[in-house]
Each structure stands twice: as C-alpha cells, then as structure tokens.
Amino acid sequence: MCDNCSYLIIIVHVAVVAVTKLREHWDETNSKVMQRKTQLDAMLSDSQRYEAKRQEVEAWLGRMETRLERMGAVGHTADVLEAQLREQKSYHAELHQYKHHIELFNQLTQKLIAVYQQDDTSRVKKMTETINQRYNNLNTR
C-alpha cells in the first residue's frame, strides 16, 4: 500500500508540475497576444488617420490637376494674358499653401513606417510616393 501511495504522490506531483508549466505558458502567450492586440489597435488608429489624410490630399490633388488642365494655351490678347497670369499666381499660391498638408501626410507615413517596422508598409510607401510625385508634377508645370 505504501508503494501505491508513493506512486500516487509522484503522479500527482508530475501532474501539478505539468499544470503549472502549462499555466505559465498560457499566461505568457496571453500576455503576448494582448500586447499584439494593443499594437494592432494603435496601428488601426494610425492607419485610419493616414487614410483620412490620404483621401483629403488625393481629392485636393485631383482638383488641382483638373484646374491645371483647364488653364489651356497661352492667350494672345492683353486681357486674356492678364487673366491667365492671375490664375497662374492663384494656382501657385494654393500649391504653396497646401505644402504643409503634404508635409503632414509625409510625417504620418514616416511614423507608420518607423513604428510598424515589423509589419508590411510597402503599400503605404507606394501610395505616398505616388502622391508626392503628383504634387511635384503640379509644381513643375
């Protein structure tokens, strides 16, 4: 009977050790999952800010590209030339004023890339490059 008691005590001890290790592993895994959830929640918030700013900037770029296309050829009369000059000045003034929004958008991009280095940010980089190229094209025309 005493051998059976010793055997049962050993079995119970092994089971307790196994359950303890399993609980420690569960706690560690749960902690990592919760950390990742917190990170993903922050990423979602940052991504939503980025997306809202991207949509705002793209809408503005579209309006400015349309405005540029409507400017047409250089006029031949003084009145037409004066009107075109005013439009050009207004156009370039708006480009200059909006530069701050482009810079903010680029800062949001850099934050996403820096903070979420372990995640795929290639799409964000590509969209930002496209927006910067469109803005630069408006400035060089």
Automatic annotation (TrEMBL):
Keyword Cell membrane: no
Main location: membrane
One cellular-component annotation, GO: plasma membrane
Subcellular location: Cell membrane; Cytoplasm
GO BP, one annotated term: synaptic signaling
Xref: SMART domains: SPEC
Membrane topology: Peripheral membrane protein
InterPro entries in the cross-refs: KCMF1/Dystrophin (IPR050774), Spectrin/alpha-actinin (IPR018159), Spectrin_repeat (IPR002017)
Keyword tags: Calcium, Cytoplasm, Cytoskeleton
Protein name: Dystrophin
Organism from which the protein derives: Timema bartmani
